[in-house]
Amino acid sequence: MPVWEIVGWNGSEEIFRRNVPIEGMGIDHLKALLLALTAKHSLDDAAIVDCYRDRDAKAHRVHLDVRESNDAAARTTIYTCGLGLNCWFVARARDEVGVNVE
Question: What was the pLDDT predicted at 95?
Fold first, then answer.
């Protein structure tokens, strides 16, 4: 059964790893989860509030966004959310034995 492989890093230290069945989590929910994990592990309450302010507001911060990139060699899309090298989370579709799923 295909899964989302979700891995979190703080610098070079792995801080989170979990496989979640794709069947129970669509891409929109996956992106929301990556945002929540990044906020939990990276930001204080005030910074989280500022991330959710209107983009044209003076206090708006652009810390929380999910980027998509295509790994042509692996034939999969990788979803990334993070704050530089400090803390970031990556998700991609895999089968249960770790092979990329299209």
Answer: 79
